[in-house]
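So, could you explain this one?
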Amino acid sequence: MTRLAVTGYASLDYVMHLDGMVAADRTTTGHRTDAAWPRVGGCPSYIAKAVARMGGVVDPVMWVGTDAMGRMLTEDLRSA
């Protein structure tokens, strides 16, 4: 059996909504909503979820805490 190990940093991210198009020489403001927190992030999470959706076997390798946020991140990856 072939498996993929993906290493890197774990993160919990805010999703940002831009208030317009990004363009050169101008500022585009943005905002976040409480409904967008937390979203599991970090390269290992994104790659592991993509590989799992394609039917691959993947093990994300990263350090997470044992607090509620760490358990939430771990469960999100397990369910994916």
